[in-house]
Structure formats: C-alpha cells, structure tokens
Amino acid sequence: MARWLRSLVGALLLLEGAAALSFLHHRYEEMVQALFRVQSQCPYVTRIYSIGRSVEGRHLYVLEFSDYPGIHEPLEPEFKYVGNMHGNEVLGRELLLQLSEFLCEEYRRGNERITHLIHDTRIHIMPSMNPDGYEVAAKQGPDSNGYLTGRNNANGVDLNRNFPDLNTFMYYSGEISGPNHHIPLPDNWKSQVEPETLAVIQWISSYNFVLSANLHGGAVVANYPYDKSQDQRFRSHRRTVNTPTPDDKLFQKVS
C-alpha cells in the first residue's frame, strides 16, 4: 500500500510539472507575463530587471536567479543566457522561458543540484534580445514567413553583426606584440550600434560575467571565441586559418 501511494504521489508530481510547461510561442506581453509569473513563484531567489529598450520601446528584460538577487558575491561566478537575437529564431527564446520555469519549480521542490546552482552561481536569463523582430515574424504567421522576416531589428539591422569587431583588433595587436586582453572598444562605437546592442554591451560592462551562451535556431552549431577566422595571404590570395584562443580546449569542452 505504501509503495502504491508513493508511486501515485510521484506520478502526480510529474503531471504537475508537465502541466506547468507551456509549449507555445510567447508574444512579447505573454513573455513578460511568464517572466513575472516565475518571479512571483520564487520571489526570494529571483529578480527581474531591464537593461534598456528596443528601437520600438520594448523592455529588454532579464530574469536573475541567485540566493541574493541583485547582489554580486565575491568568487561567485556570474553567467548569462541570451536568446532571440535574430527575431525569427524562436527556439532559444522558448528554451530560456522553459529553463526559467524549470529552475524555479525544481528549487521549490528542493532539487539538490538546482539548489546548488542557484546558491553558488548568479544566473541571468534574457529570453529576447530582439523583441521587435520577433513581433514582425509572429504577425506573419508560419505559412507566409520568409527566412529574413523579422530576423533583424526594427531598423533592419542584423544584431548578430552589430557588435564591434574585436577579433580583428586582437589579430592586429598580436602582429605588433600588443595586448591580447582588455582590448578597448573603438572611440566611436556607440554611434555605430543599435539600441539593443548598446544595451547588451553596457550590460556586459556592468556585470562580472565569466561565461555566456547565446542561443540561435536553424542548425546544430557551436560557435565560440575566436569565431571569426584570421585572414592570411598565401601567394597573393587570401584564405582563412584556424585561430584558437589560448583556452580553446575549455571552450570546446563547454560547447
């Protein structure tokens, strides 16, 4: 009898967890509601903040998980996830919403591994870096949605190609025996980037992130530094060569 009761309780817990999952696309307002719902369910280990606004004025919300939300604890690693940089690549957006729900639910259940993660790591989750592009794609629907529909932001800019090219600076610095870390941004970089990109760069500058992941959709690929190959000249023509970072093995393992 006791074994049967334990099995029943276990099954009900599984059903409860399954019922909490919503395998649906979330428009902007629905995404915001989902984030605040998680925050209300786990108020003591979560915090929601905005790093800025998109071209059309939508907040770029981040959900933080930590045993001390809003506080950087010395020696505690800070990690960030970013999704939906391309507005019509929705997988990362939905996965990060599911991850947020999962972390909260498992923490409430006393899952030892999740509790350890939240207590010993500060996790920042941004489901959508390009909410404007997502809305463009969502309005088209699945039947008339082209490859480029909603991919860029509201100004028509590909945010994935909008960050300062520090790889090239790094390669040039190597040629002149210059620094290979803490390379400063170009003086005029703010005038060359979109509001979403500016917000993310300032976000990175404000937090001590030690590791990050940016989730795209469409293919199974892992890009990691340096993901832009160095061009070299061979007999008057150019070709790209492998340009690993000093910690390339670690990046491969993490990827």
UniProtKB/TrEMBL annotation:
<comment type="similarity">
    <text>Belongs to the peptidase M14 family.</text>
</comment>
<dbReference type="GO" id="GO:0008270">
    <property type="term" value="F:zinc ion binding"/>
</dbReference>
<keyword id="KW-0862">Zinc</keyword>
<keyword id="KW-0378">Hydrolase</keyword>
<feature type="domain" description="Peptidase M14">
    <location>
        <begin position="24"/>
        <end position="255"/>
    </location>
</feature>
<dbReference type="Pfam" id="PF00246">
    <property type="entry name" value="Peptidase_M14"/>
</dbReference>
<dbReference type="GO" id="GO:0016485">
    <property type="term" value="P:protein processing"/>
</dbReference>
<dbReference type="InterPro" id="IPR057246">
    <property type="entry name" value="CARBOXYPEPT_ZN_1"/>
</dbReference>
<keyword id="KW-0479">Metal-binding</keyword>
<dbReference type="InterPro" id="IPR050753">
    <property type="entry name" value="Peptidase_M14_domain"/>
</dbReference>
<keyword id="KW-0482">Metalloprotease</keyword>
<keyword id="KW-0732">Signal</keyword>
<protein>
    <submittedName>
        <fullName>CBPN Carboxypeptidase</fullName>
    </submittedName>
</protein>
<dbReference type="GO" id="GO:0004181">
    <property type="term" value="F:metallocarboxypeptidase activity"/>
</dbReference>
<dbReference type="GO" id="GO:0005615">
    <property type="term" value="C:extracellular space"/>
</dbReference>
<dbReference type="GO" id="GO:0006518">
    <property type="term" value="P:peptide metabolic process"/>
</dbReference>
<keyword id="KW-0121">Carboxypeptidase</keyword>
<keyword id="KW-0645">Protease</keyword>
<dbReference type="InterPro" id="IPR000834">
    <property type="entry name" value="Peptidase_M14"/>
</dbReference>
<dbReference type="InterPro" id="IPR057247">
    <property type="entry name" value="CARBOXYPEPT_ZN_2"/>
</dbReference>
<feature type="signal peptide">
    <location>
        <begin position="1"/>
        <end position="20"/>
    </location>
</feature>
